Amino acid sequence: LVYNPLVDANTLCPYCDESLPSSPTPHLKHLLATTAKKSVRAPRPTNPMGRKAAVSVFINVCQRHRFESKILPEAEAKGWPKSIEWNLIHGRVMRMRKHLEALMENSFFGDTKGGSDSDDSDVHESGSQRMRVRDKCFFWKEVMKEVKEKGTRAAANVKSQFANFQNAQPGYYGELGSILIHQSLCELFPPETTHPDLVSPLSPKEFINRVLLPEVALRLIMEDKLLSGSSGARKSLEILRDSTTYGVAMFPEDTGERGKVTSAELEKGKSKGKGKGKERHRSEDLDNEKTIEMNVADKMVREKARRRRLELEKEDEDEQEE
Predict the structure, then answer these.
(1) Directed axis angle between helix 213-225 and helix 138-150, to 10°?
(2) What is the pLDDT of residues 231-242, one digit of tens each?
(3) Where is the composition biased (Basic and acidic residues) (predicted)?
(4) What is the per-residue burial (b if ≥16 Cβ within 10 Å, else e) of 27-44?
């Protein structure tokens, strides 16, 4: 093989010489920039802009540009985003506060909190029995089904949480979305001050991770797609589940996009989420802007996501061999 002079060498991967996507994402640009610092120039007949490094150094670059060249177009055809305004996530979550409090307290529909959301307008009373908010929550019902089948202790242990990790993912919002949503939820409902009986049989942390986090993601997708009502929620759930693998690959925690969420932008987003306890959490908010709290749940999320990325990489390698 020899270099085709009609092809711009800048459009080729400097490591494998395959074509780069025409519009690389911020994450791919970030990978190319950081990997370039660990490699050396190595012009060759197939690529005058070629570079050389250990395979372990550049493999992520090649896997990423293949993903963006092959999988990303399919995702775009389905309407899944390849960029998200991360600095707006906090404010969007805060605007869901009323509904999330209703879920936390398991209010009745028709109460101040339980019946305020437009997407619950199609809920009606069956006879004299009033429905509670959790009765309409997909994720709470999944947890209760598991509790019924396995028992409370088995459903709440670490092994079970790993097994059900996929069902609690935020769809195309990916790892980065999961972390940002989790931070906002912990600000609204600090696990250490939430009474366990309120969310039994789960712990406060488990309730956030397995119920509130995917519920927020579902509603974010509904907003993105202009969906409403029960039928809209079901469609959003379908998108969430279908786009989870894409989200993990597209928006990993270490994406270059995260650096674009500056402290000023976060503060601007948070200023829109006015509510009770804002002053009480001010110091906690500042700490959260500087670092991610590495509790057990966070570590679990990252480890599972890391395993999923390895699976995706293995699948990509298998496809290349075929």
Answers:
(1) 150
(2) 999 999 999 999
(3) 255-270, 281-292
(4) bbebbbeebbeebeeeee
